Amino acid sequence: MNILKNKTAVITGAGSGMGKAMSILFAEEGANVVACDINSANLESTVSEIKAAGNIVTGITGNISDETDVKKIINNTIALYGGVDILVNNAGILDDFMTVNEMKNEMWNKILSVNLTGPMFACREALHQMLKQGNGVIVNIASVGGLFGARGGAAYTVSKHGLIGLTKNIGFTYAKKGIRCNAIAPGAVNTNIGANMHPDMLGFEALNAGMGINPRTADPSEIATIALFLASDKSSFINGTVVTADGGWTSY
Question: Which of 101, 172, 229, 248 has the fewest other C-beta atoms within 10 Å?
Answer without folding.
Answer: 101
